[in-house]
Amino acid sequence: MKAARLNAIHSPLQLEDVPLPPMDPPHRVRVKLQAAALNHRDVWIQKGQYAAIVTPVTLGSDGCGVREDNGEPVIINPGSHWGPDERVQSLAYTILGMPDDGTLAECVSVPADRLHPKPPHLSAEEAAALPLAGLTAWRALCVRGAARPGDRVFVNGIGGGVAWFCMQFALALGCQVYVSSSSEEKLAEARAAGAHGAVNYRQPGIFKELAAHNELFDVIVDSAGGEPFAQLLFIAAPGARIVTYGGTLGKITQLSPQIIFWKQLSILGSTMGSDADFAAMLDFVNRHQIRPRIARIFPLEEAQAAMDFLAYGAQIGKVVVRIA
Amino acid sequence: MKAARLNAIHSPLQLEDVPLPPMDPPHRVRVKLQAAALNHRDVWIQKGQYAAIVTPVTLGSDGCGVREDNGEPVIINPGSHWGPDERVQSLAYTILGMPDDGTLAECVSVPADRLHPKPPHLSAEEAAALPLAGLTAWRALCVRGAARPGDRVFVNGIGGGVAWFCMQFALALGCQVYVSSSSEEKLAEARAAGAHGAVNYRQPGIFKELAAHNELFDVIVDSAGGEPFAQLLFIAAPGARIVTYGGTLGKITQLSPQIIFWKQLSILGSTMGSDADFAAMLDFVNRHQIRPRIARIFPLEEAQAAMDFLAYGAQIGKVVVRIA
Question: How far does CA A87 lie from the centroid of its chain?
């Protein structure tokens, strides 16, 4: 079968013929993939910015396809071995697509309990866009952030796959949703998708201005960290949950403990999600007929171009790879 | 009656004769005080480091005495108007002892629903030492920190009233408790009181050393903030709760978002506590026969000396003022 292989860090993905992966039904089954989707994790692995990288490997955590043993259309829960503690993943936790070969290939072999029925309302490309980003958004917003109908939600940095899902899920939940970006295009797209407010975080003093107009939020999700993070405290409502699932801008500085304790704020780390989180997310997506937003679809032959497109960061929504 | 009055910020407390406070039983009752206790709040008000200070006023949030209307020995819940949201106090929340006249007086008048039976196993001085610090410790450790039997608990900066209660409550809960201080005397006293571990935070690299020996903690309580706070992430177990209830060292810097999200940590602000928290704390103290630790007892005539002693910060446990 064909697979887009990473043979060493810093080398481009290469489309190669590789042996079909093993299967052992009903425990371990092979899925013939129709579509995969990329995550920043794939880019970071290629750039060597990840712990314990093993090559050669087929990257790709997200996939939609057909079970070889029974023909059922499925999507894959990319996380394995979360463990018994809903609070945190176990040391054995792994994500599909390194060290195990992932979904940028014509087939992938996974334990059968990682498979879930493909949401019927979605195309294969849309369904492939859902798993890892949808799971991460669900846990951040709904489990850690405990967003509830009527809550005011602020998604800091709209555009990426997880952030867009956070906005979609919060809107479907019945929250008042604000987003931020430095891109006016992304802000306009978010407004068009239903966001109640959209602000440019490059605008000086914007967070203090929101607070001065009593625009405060019960749940704030952020994946940047860094110096700007401290300003999120200003727009946090009393009792708010500020969830961080990334740190592209580095360390968080200048956090006021007085604001944190007086407002009884919670700053909550979140990454990926448990099997229960995945099942809840999928149920929510089906009930609310949520459609993942696809930024662009690349053929498997252009997997490296898809990676470069994601790394560039101008996309809105998920970068998908069509396989069959 | 006699009261230790603060007539203006930066002026010493003055023992004065003032009119008896009003009462309106059964709604508002007068308590003849036997003992009061001090909190840093009193010192900060005197130093002008508090919002919306009103003088002249009788300071003091903690008190134990006898109800004038029925002779029942009582302690006072110093918080009023928490409001309906257990997550956070309402804007109407106040603490006894500014703006309302407090307990550094022969009598205090409070709404009857602020009164609770004095724990029978305690002296009046011990009972007076309990309310505000015990409430703050309870919410930080058990409500926000969700400490459970068997958890490993780290109390950063042992010695003050709240920190000492955190240690006592955690020990009574059946936790493994470590404490830190820069004072070898305080560390020795904590060990003598049952702490399983006691480390000097001035020792270079101590937090990384603990982590290297896999000494990790499920609940960490801190009231300093500042630059050292970031090191608490090293000793946080996966899924840990780090509770901050103070910020004497100023802003928190250099927090790694990667550690926060990968370990799924929760950094939780906590201040005072709700009526439900107070009732739960009091029930716990009674069931476990916990005795507040008293650093020193001053007569009401020496209330200013008691304030200075607290401000100096060398004490272990609560500073109490005996009134009758």
Answer: 19
- The tens place of each residue's pLDDT in chain A, 324 residues long, gives 999 999 999 999 999 999 999 999 889 999 999 999 999 999 999 999 988 899 999 999 999 999 999 999 999 999 999 999 999 999 999 999 999 999 999 999 999 999 999 999 999 999 999 999 999 999 999 999 999 999 999 999 999 999 999 999 999 999 999 999 999 999 999 999 999 999 999 999 999 999 999 999 999 999 999 999 999 999 999 999 999 999 999 999 999 999 999 999 999 999 999 999 999 999 999 999 999 999 999 999 999 999 999 999 899 999 999 999
In this complex, which of A87, A254, A256 lies closest to B264 when CB atoms are compared? A87
Is B285 among the domain residues?
A: no
Q: Rounded CA gap, A179 and A190, in Å?
A: 7
Distance between first and last Cα of chain B: 12
Query: Are B115 and B139 found together in one domain?
Result: no
A238 vs B88, B247, B268: nearest CB: B88
- Which chain A residues contact residue B250 at CB under 8 A? 257
Cβ–Cβ contact A229 with B under 8 A? yes
Contact status of B268 with chain A (Cβ, < 8 Å): yes
Longest dimension (CA), chain A: 61
> Which CATH number characterizes residue A100's domain?
3.90.180.10
Cis peptide before B78 (omega within 30 of 0): no
Of B258, B265, B271, the CB nearest to A247: B258
A217 and A233 co-located in one domain: yes
Instruction: Specify the CATH number for the domain of residue B142.
Output: 3.40.50.720
B147 and B261 co-located in one domain: yes
Q: A225 in contact with B at a CB cutoff of 8 Å?
A: yes
- Identify the burial level of A238 via C-beta atoms within 10 angstroms of its C-beta, where 0-12 means exposed, 13-18 middle and 19 or more buried: middle
Touching check for A245 and chain B: CB below 8 Å? yes
**Both A144 and A263 in a single domain?**
yes
SS3 content of chain A, % helix, strand, coil (to 5): 30, 30, 40
Best A219, A264, A265 member to test B by mutation, with max B CBs in 10 Å, is A264
User: By residue range, what is the domain housing residue B172?
Assistant: 135-269
Query: Which tokens in the block code for residue B105?
Result: 């007086």
The total number of structural domains that make up chain A: 2
Q: What ipTM did this prediction achieve?
A: 0.97
